Amino acid sequence: MIDHPKIRRAILALPGIEASESEDSLSFGVGGKGMSWPYLARATPKGKRELVPGVLAVRCRMEKKELLLEAAPETFFDDAHYRGYPAVLVRLDAVETDELTALLTDAWRLQAPKAVVKRFDAGG
Asked: Per the structure, how many domains does the chain have?
């Protein structure tokens, strides 16, 4: 089962993280760029987008997305809106805490300023 507080603590330890105020939310960004956000889907093609509980969109490289989709379709998926977009949809009831934390850390690396990532990697 996903441990929201553990994930939040790990991600908030990264430099420059912007997080939603809700303790239970896994919405994060850095430098005004989104890393993860709630998944909104349309029930009908032109219908209103509505929150899908238990699913999180997480920024990632397209190569990684393709690997995740192929390796674990029960955990990771996309839809027409996310096809070709560098983010993967994650079923929170199917992902391990450590796996999601690593995916969010990778998302931070993609979105954070390069100098901040370099300083962090150097231990500063």
From this structure: 1
